[in-house]
Amino acid sequence: MLVNLKEILQPAREQKYCVGHFDIVNIEMARGVIAAAEEIGAPVVLGIEEEQLKVCPLDDFASFVLPLARKASVPVAVHFDHGLTFGRCIEALKLGFTSVNFDCSRDILEINEAKVAEMARTAHAFGAAIEAELGYTPYASELHDNVSDFFTDPSQTAEYVAVTEIDALAISVGTAHGEYLQTPKLDYGRIRAIADAAKVPLVLHGGSGLSDNTIREAIESGVSKIDIFTDINIACCQGAIQAYNDGVNMISDVIPYEEHAVKAAAAEKIRLFFNR
Question: Among all residues, which ones are annotated catalytic?
Answer without folding.
Answer: 81
